[in-house]
Amino acid sequence: MTVVLNKILVALDDSGIADRVIETVHRLVLPSDGKIIFCHVFPTSNSLDDLPCDRPHPEPSATLYQQVEKQLQLYQSELRVDSDIELVTGDPAEEIIRLGNIYKADLIVIGSRGLTGMTRIVKGSVSSQVVEDAPCSVLVVKPG
Fold first, then answer.
1. pLDDT at residue 40, rounded to an integer
2. CA 73 – CA 70 distance, rounded (Å)
């Protein structure tokens, strides 16, 4: 059985596993008319209750935004297929799932930070939530 991957959403963060995720993406076979969408989600507070209603939500600094955009453009330049970049702010899992729906992705590629125990319970697992709720298959890339 052959699976054709026309659109792949690649979710990257600053956890240090991005290079491994990119290596994995380069191993995937896409048709010449395929498309890769690189996305980075700048997380906001875990709860809107934590934010005063009379103040704007925190935005990523212009410098951080530019650094992330420049890195994604570098990844983009290494591709042989069409690609887009999406930089969004919000809950990482929800935004990745939303982008997967918008682009009608055939596959989402995401890294796992390898959290265990209480850290995983407290911080939550973005990759687990994406696997659970994504509109398509999800490839989770594990660290080292």
1. 96
2. 5
